[in-house]
Amino acid sequence: MEQLASIDAVRRYRKAVSGSLGFVPTMGALHEGHAVLIRRSTAENDATVVSIFVNPTQFGPGEDLHKYPRTLEADLELCAREGAAAVFTPNSAMMYPAGFTTWVNVDGLADKLCGRSRQNHFRGVCTVVAKLFNLVAPTRAYFGQKDAQQAIVLTRMARDLDMPLEVITCPTVRETDGLALSSRNRYLDPRNRQRARSIYKALQAAETGLAAGETDVATLKRACWAELDGNVDRVDYVEILAADDLGALEAVDKPALCAIAAFVGSTRLIDNVILAP
Ligand code: PAF
């Protein structure tokens, strides 16, 4: 496996590679959720590139940029084990050279859910992913459904900007008790790790309600809140929106994204399920 530590290196690599190229952009602190993306990419493409870059522009003031886990050695091992052909490890000076002033915004979609409480988050995500797509020029790029809004926003960005690649969203990987895998789970102490289970339980409450015939969005959201109440420290949002365009819904009469963001201790966790009527 090659480690590409400069923009020139990744461009040279891209020129030399033939056939289809899969791409898994990450911020490192890799876990089984990332391994699943890499595995799918290696199964569907001739070669796979993983990028590892903790992108400063998608963190707001007071967020966890500086304490975000950095585990490069272990990440490289995981990438090699899962069959990645190359890992691109740029730094901030390469990605955002002095005078950098061009941003990618996906209006509308990026303003809801996480975009409401994390101002400029998706501007940072879209800008860095657009740059990575330009450099890596993949055939297919893989993202996790756990970050559902990110996947929807990036799919729209690629479509709107005629980027010649396929954006593929892969199912969320969970612990046996349902907690969605996330690099931020390592912030949780044992007590908060237990309490964090309530997020998936809340999503399941909406699924159970729908399965029992309840389609009213307000009622299903109340069922989620009931599970979260007392188990998380602050709820950022509980939303049920149209799964395709994040439009408002009063009833689940088409596929809907049921999404939660909540703080357990000081750790902000997100998760979601698709409610299919
Ligand atoms: O999902 C992530 O890890 C990041 O948001 C991404 C897509 C790598 C962009 O920095």
Shape: globular
| CA radius of gyration | 19 Å
Mean pLDDT: 98
**Spatial arrangement of strands, main beta sheet:** 1-4-3-2-5-6
- List of distinct ligands in this structure: pantoate
The number of distinct β-strands equals 9
Q: For the record, what is the CATH homologous superfamily label of the largest domain?
A: HUPs
Q: Beta-strand percentage? A: 15-25%
CATH topology of the largest domain: Rossmann fold
Order of helices and strands: EHEHEHEHHHEHEHHHEEE
Helix content: 25-40%
Could you give a short description of this structure?
Helix 3 (72-81) links the parallel strand 3 (47-52) and strand 4. The protein is built from ten helices and nine strands.
3D architecture notes:
This protein has 277 residues and is α/β, with parallel strands linked by helices. Helices cover 38% and strands 20% of the residues. The protein has 10 helices and 9 strands. The strands form 2 sheets. Strands 1-4-3-2-5-6 form a 6-stranded parallel beta sheet, sandwiched between helices. The chain is globular, with a radius of gyration of 19 Å. The mean pLDDT is 98. The protein binds pantoate. Residues 25-27, 55, 58, 125, 128-129, 147, 150 line the site of pantoate. Pantoate (PAF) binds at residues 25-27, 55, 58, 125, 128-129, 147, 150.
